[in-house]
Amino acid sequence: MKQSELLKSIAALTPYQKRKLEIYVIDALNLNEEDRDLKPKRCPYCGKESRMIKKGFKNGKQRYMCKDCSHIFTYNSHTITMYSKIERSMFKKIVLDTLSFVSVKKTAADLDLSVPCIFENRHKILCALEVLLDSENMKLSGTIEIDETFELESQKGCRKIQRKARK
């Protein structure tokens, strides 16, 4: 599912469903914040429940090293907030504005952040929702409409061209 399709499906949700989605994303952010002080149970790289050792601090975050694969990671590795340098309250506001279809410029003005910063964080949110929806086995139901798709096909260098010339 592409992000444009994802935005269309979010727009089609009822207010109750939008609120449930907002709560789900905010709960995931809160859970990530609560996991800050806990030692990870699994390595985010190899997925094994191995022995983790502490490996110093980086940017105020405790780093851990997996004894099996020797990867070094922090508590928020492979999460939405992985490289985020903004506060959690600002990130929550970006999530709510994304799901409410508030413009990027208005969100940037409200939070006093740059437009590229808001755009990057929205992209993270939409990619995470896309992965979440792709991981679930969703079945389509109801009325499904399909439009025509035009694909450009190059047969340059072929001796037998299977199509009419494009002009």
Keywords for this structure?
167 residues, 3-stranded antiparallel beta sheet, 42% helix
Task: Describe this protein's structure.
This protein is mainly alpha-helical. It contains 5 helices and 3 strands. It has helices at residues 3-11, 15-34, 88-99, 104-111, 115-135, and strands at residues 52-58, 61-66, 72-74. It has a 3-stranded antiparallel beta sheet with strand order 1-2-3, with no helix packed on it. Strand 2 (61-66) and strand 3 form a beta hairpin. Helix 2 runs antiparallel to helix 3 (88-99), helix 3 (88-99) crosses helix 5 (115-135) and helix 4 packs across helix 5 (115-135). The two termini are 33 Å apart. The model has no long low-confidence stretch (mean pLDDT 76).
Proportion of residues in β-strands: 5-15%
Shape by Cα distribution? extended
Helix/strand class: mainly alpha
Helix content: 40-55%
Briefly characterize the structure.
This protein is mostly helical and 167 residues long. Helix content is 42%, strand content 10%. A hairpin with a 5-residue loop joins strand 2 and strand 3 (72-74).
Blueprint (SSEs and pairs):
Elements: H1 3-11, H2 15-34, E1 52-58, E2 61-66, E3 72-74, H3 88-99, H4 104-111, H5 115-135
Antiparallel strand pairs: 1-2, 2-3
Helix pairs in contact: 2-3, 3-5, 4-5
